[in-house]
Amino acid sequence: MTVLIVDGQGGRLGKQLVKEVLERFPQQEVLAVGTNSMATESMLKAGAPRAATGENAVAVACRKADVILGPVGIVIADALLGEVTPAMAKAVGQSDAIRILLPSDKCSTMVAGVGNQTMSALIDDAMNKLAEILK
Q: Domain 2-134 carries which CATH code?
């Protein structure tokens, strides 16, 4: 399976996700795509074996992915301070991949029922959900 990690801004969440996926699921193909070059570079530093940047990279990678991981903002046009273009949000939203989205208030969107979990707890939950999918 191909696990696609999409992130923007400084790529901090994407970096953590790349690290966790590589540690917990080393047999899976991991692809990282940043909405900007700094996010992509951050995910490469975390060990992403393949990475790309930008709108077209998101669109192409979403067609090839089996699972997409990232902040909830990747499905909301103009999120992440405008870095998520409408085409990016559409590509993620229309992908046949299973999406595991982590809530973040950085995209001006609140997800009810989530509570005040730390990002580490959210990443652990995302990895548990990924493990269920990969069974």
A: 3.40.50
